[in-house]
Fold:
Amino acid sequence: MVSTANVQHPADILRGPALLDDAEHSKGTAFTVKERAEYGLEGLLPPAVETLDRQLERVMEHLDAKPNDLERYIYLIGLEDRNETLFYKTLMSDPARFIPIVYDPTVADACLTFGHIYRRARGMYITRDMKGRIAQVLRNWPERDVRFVCVSTGGRILGLGDIGANGMGIPIGKLQLYTACAAVPPDCLLPVLLDIGTTNEALRADPLYLGLREPPLPQAELDALVDEFVEAVLQVFPGCCVHFEDWKGTDALRLLPRYKDKILCYNDDIQGTAAIGLAGLTTALEIIDAPLTAQRILFFGAGSAAIGNANLMVSAMQAKGLSLDEARGRISMFDINGLIEPSRKDLNEWQKVYARKAAPSRDLLATIETFKPTVLIGVSTKGGAFNQAVVEAMSKLNERPIIFALSNPTDKAECTAEQAYTWSKGNALYAAGVQFPEVILNGKTFHPGQANNFYIFPAIGLATYVARPRLLTDACFIVAAQASADQVGPEMRAKGMLFPGQGEILEMEVTTATRVAEYMFDQGLAQVKRPRDIRAWIEGQLYQPHY
Ligand code: NAI
Structure:
């Protein structure tokens, strides 16, 4: 079935060049002879009338001719500016091929060079200078039925640190994945860059930088600005879900509890990452037939991704019978200043609960030898930190060590798939934040998993789009994690895969969204009437890229 986004007709409003220039409604060379006559398009297009599939063929030719993925990214964003339907037709024709171009890892290059590759504005830029009138500014957005605002300050983009307004590539890319992966209609999605200034002096000095050239706001002023922003979003777009993305870790951890029990919102770096970590861990433990409650989990990195993962794992362990203290006791963390332990003076309130009674240490290997982790999770942005000695130490302690190198982009991964499999002699249950190629070791082929939250957040988005919940609780993310794990069949597990394949991503997201929506109905979170067949009801609301 076609979403309302597709059937709306612009002819009454737009004609001639204005219609051709309107990306949401333009069909380019696919306007029929009758439409060309009706909408004043005669003579403005070459005579051939093409199908969407023929147009897709041309797009593929253009993409094949591009020298690298950044150029493909630039081309695809330009295509979205000209013809949104064709853009999504392209992405949805082969998500596994296009996700790494519109999102990680290519989006990292796109963000780093954002001011240099900029063509035209997309989404909204809300700046600190708009304080007091943010609602008025949001009203400049042409769509009224905005269901998701994905907002970043650019304060911690992937593993690239603070890149200020250049971070806009992330909310844009994240929301594109709502549609490309889970068929959420694109016209209800609004990417926002909340420009609070940046610590990045090199960027502030770059003549082509497009953001405010000021240091970031102090915390109290930032929080007041975010309060106003959130209120304004809800006032201008009632029922909208606020998706926080790639904020500085401490801002993310401080702000999520401020809103999560009051308004419809989530932080993907904390909750989405946690769910995908839990999903991968669930599958890995099912492969080795070991209970979650018996694991010792060491996080390398203790920022928002580590805390989010740890908290969700603790909740999952509690659900399986451990007390809060017992569950927390199964987790340890190690960050840029070493082991998280009680004598450290630099710990924030979220880290303190994971401080392990042990002597201070800045030596990861020594920490592994004393804590004896069964699971090692890298969320540090420190590429290569899991060296041969680290992987071998994990392998000595565990027949099947579970090693996740989640940092993005590619060069930040704590170890590559090849390293993990080689150094563990093929025994590691491994996942990375990016998709590494298959590894062949002693004649056996390993398929490294990509622990990327795109297995979770588009499905959460789709469930939220249809069920319109009051809130997104942590349990919604646990349900999504289990749904993801349940979709990794025995054959996939035998190849070392910890996550569903990317080939059938829409099918997978719909399955997960169905489970999450069911949960929302069961818990009284949903604000629409429960349909008899939830899956069929969701399928009927999926965006389809056709004219
Ligand atoms: P963050 O900035 O909040 O935390 C980074 C942590 O790493 C801090 O605790 C810091 O002390 C630690 N760290 C930095 N350098 C270190 C070093 N040399 N040795 C030990 N620890 C070090 O960042 P956040 O949000 O926690 O993200 C971390 C990484 O995880 C990023 O690369 C991000 O792209 C990745 N990530 C991956 C996701 C996925 O789906 N695979 C999802 C979310 C984040």
Observations:
- The longest helix spans residues 268-288.
- The chain has 26 helices and 14 strands.
